[in-house]
Task: structure prediction
Amino acid sequence: MVNYVPGSYFVYAPNKGAPIVFAIFFAISGLLFAYQTYKYKCWRMTVILPWGATIFSAGFITREIGAYHYDKLPIFIAQTVLLLEAPPVYAAALYFILGRTLYYIPYLSPIHPGRVVTTFLGIDALIGIMIANGAWRLADTDISKGERKAGAGLIKASVILQAVSCIGFIAIAGIFHRRASKQGILNKKVRTVLIVLYISMTLIFTRTVYRVVEYFQGYTGNIVTHEPYFWLFEASLMITNSWMLNIFFPGRYLPSSNKVYLARDGTSEIIGPGWVDKRPFLLTFFDPFDLWGLIKGRDKATAFWEEENKRNGEVVASLPLEMNGQQITTTTTSRSQ
Result:
């Protein structure tokens, strides 16, 4: 049975205690992310994780305010937008982490490691724009029915696109995982990062499916009119994801620089030139996927790991690996030949 509350934009009277608890949980997680990012100097890989946790915390604070003022449209719109925008930020962090993982063993990546980040971030940016433009239209009951319907369409499209992005992400990680395992160079650190990525993206994907069903059911649907679904499939899943990333922080397992990669011998780490998108800013804005570069063969030209045998890399560390069930340690520090 639905407990309709007259004047409530939430339909019901929201819980007045849980939002502040989750706001505190996400704030703590965000502070930990900031400390861990600083400690492991992995700014380019995890710097947006504190931002994602901050957005979630702000969203739950706004929801707590809305629990006492559920008839105030601006508050309802603010908490809706914040809670919809936060998960894509976490997804974007996973793209950076996967990209860094692929840079570490670049010759086994299904596509150029640099393209992984730009492609998924381009999709993520599009999702964010669709959410921002759709959420306020869907929430504002004072605008025309047609505009609200358009807002609902944008939200539906954004969560579907996010679901497709999640599937593509897991597929690329899975192909890379299988190749590394088959080559016998999947060490414990890389394996740990991949497992964390699988679990994290699965949690985000599950939450996305919940949102897809919610918006396709509409404002009279079972999910929208019953708050427990929100606390289970949004709040609980996302704080679990955030804490898991705190506990198994990827910066602990991967080199801070994307110039460092694992040699084909599976034992030595090498400093390469790295990969930087040198295109003009406007070109990167209008073609974030660098489709023209793909056509022109720019990926092949920037495959710096192919130069490993041309003496442009330097072995910087020995690396203990597990290969065929045995622990192997190399102590070589000479330049690669």
About this structure: The two ends are 72 Å apart (CA to CA). Residues 267 and 319 are 5 Å apart (CA to CA). The chain has a mean pLDDT of 82.
